[in-house]
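job 3f2a | input accepted
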Amino acid sequence: MKKGVMRPGHVQIRVLDMEEALKHYRDLIGLIEMDRDDQGRVYLKAWTEVDKYSVILREADEPGLDFIGFKCLNENTLDKLNIDLIEFGCRTKELPANNLKDCGRRIQFTTPTGHTFELFANKKQTGKWGLENVNPEAWPEGLTGMKAVRFDHCLLYGPDIEKTTQLFCNVLGFDVAEQVIDENNVRISSFLTCSSKAHDIAFINHDEPGKFHHASFWLETWEDILRAADLISMKDVALDIGPTRHGLTHGKTIYFFDPSGNRSEVFCGGDYHYPDHPTVTWQAEALGKAIFYHDRALNERFLTVLT
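job 3f2a | predicted structure (307 res):
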């Protein structure tokens, strides 16, 4: 049952050198720089997003993930979810409005996997970049790089996938669209959605808590993925794997690294999910095909390089 969480709102990523990071996220992926704050953080968005930003970059001594935010229906929903999180056993923290630029108050909590999440209900809206709300054109001129359409999801690694899945489903109203189970029928991965997308957040079981695997950005077509691959080679960007297809979600994909070592993905296509759909299950012995459908084999770097 849906609880009022609408969609991914933003992700804050730690980078080692801001100007080098902007060459990756702004110039290569094609996000639009929207603002900076007095902490030196840079705020970016993809062109179809109506909120002012979806990606925040923070210069730090080590790469990785600070937090992921999900947008809720309204302030009453935020208050109700805060109570539900506490009843589940989460320790929550309220951050005031404008702690993030032009964003309302936020409720932060930590998942059993060791990741920081937050919920918010209000953020300044600037509309789709370069387009009007009345009689809009098909797309704006002046886009750069891969021309990312939206920030889509993150994949995270950490322990206690089962309890984390319960938190997202029972408290926040997500569905398990897909999962991976081991030979003992124990869930080792959850792909969770609060919408009709294949996933809005995903977790893979890992002994070390709080690890960041990738942030993903949606493109429109397979040709866009191939063009992204060309740009990765043209700019001598570190490639992980692809272009290829996933078995899980069936999305077409390519993975690559920012200058700080954080992994990025651009993908297109993929499955859809409605509340009456059963969970799709992959068995651990088919994990190679689940992750890389064409190769049918695991890439060790994909499984072990985390920030």
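job 3f2a | The two ends are 33 Å apart (CA to CA).
job 3f2a | closed
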